[in-house]
């Protein structure tokens, strides 16, 4: 893509476009999916994923900028379909006390895919640039066959009323919800910013550290590795109460550990610091998702608006995250970028620990007035 667009900056803008589309989907999808089932959402997600793969395959013959732009838009839609499906499934099909455990298990398999995917793509690309895309299409087909064979639970008729779509109305719903759940939204957006920093500035820093010491190539893998086993611990604990505070404490610990990069000149120590920081960060994810699922379960038929709001906070993080990380890296360097991110994370999470109420109360009277 960078060869076609001519610069890394333009490539970054194209990649961020998927998150822009994601926010648009988060705004409009809640108004047109009344009654839609998890099965239907997964089907739409798999179809979108297959279309994304087809566009990438097409780009190998005609590597035009507009093809990449359309592909990124489709990816943004695909990602949101699966996000809505996950929240709907956990809220509907699992007991309240198991929400964090279920998210932990889902996270293990999702992160395992992220870990194995690049390895498989690296092997497949030896057979030609189109082979990774063909492999993705095969996986999409297998996923669709599995979905059809599984006969999803909680079947309900799909009701879609496009006459009620209103951007102003949806923003009003989000404003109402934000006033009550802003602590957990703030935390999840910060987590998204940290993740975006690793996948942008972190990749550059990994390459630079690898030139100094072969173990420097483990900088980014050290960030990914804890996601494969921390979820097992969270699932075994079956955490029900105090998820918000535990998530904030874990993120605070992660941020403070990341701050210590400022004191280290050793590549090995940096890798260890990232591993330790990521271990606590990986604990925050299922806890935050568990909080969301608890609230979604309490929202009843209007849950789709909450799911849209929570998904948009992540999309926003992935829009501004790469730009912020890139700007900080240009001004202060890659290592100091992580130090600054750690400092901001520590300050904000400390404030959240003090200000977050014990229970996030929903504005039920306002919600009952929504159509």
From TrEMBL:
Spans traversing the lipid bilayer: 6-29, 41-58, 64-81, 102-125, 131-149, 177-194, 214-234, 309-329, 335-354
Gene Ontology molecular function: any one: transmembrane transporter activity
InterPro entries for this protein: MFS, MFS_trans_sf
Keywords for the protein's UniProt record, in alphabetical order: Membrane, Transmembrane, Transmembrane helix
Keyword flag GTP-binding: no
Pfam families per the UniProt record, alphabetical: MFS_1
Keyword ATP-binding: no
Protein name: Major facilitator superfamily (MFS) profile domain-containing protein
Lineage: Bacteria, Candidatus Woeseibacteriota
